[in-house]
Amino acid sequence: MTRDKEILRILIVDDHPVMRDGLAAAIESDGQMSVVGEAGDGAEAIVRYRELRPDVTVIDLHMPGVDGLEAITAIMKEYPSARILAIASCIGDVRIKRALAIGAGACLLKTDSQREILAAIRSLANKNA
Questions:
Q1: CA-CA distances (angstroms) from residue 82 to 19, 31, 91, 102?
Q2: Report field, pTM of the whole predicted structure over 0.85
């Protein structure tokens, strides 16, 4: 079975439940993706990644406690082939460059369209598949 025919397994990490809910609804409506788990902070993201081994993880960069950068660093250290889509609140966020440098495959803004986010997830899932 090719990657294009498989249901992509997605982990969503964001400290705002309404953001997680919105992303989950968009992902589930796609028909080729499924949300396999959610996390409310970076520490929980690391644990959930280990448990679920999703195809793509969508991580908010700005969270209290263990933030997205720390979570990406930990996940990439343990799972170098992890595919991570980092999400930032604003274009001037210095964490965007840092996220890409430490292993995120792409970075989008929370203001980007549902279509753009789903396309980025698909693109990451198909890298080196």
A1: 22, 22, 24, 12
A2: yes
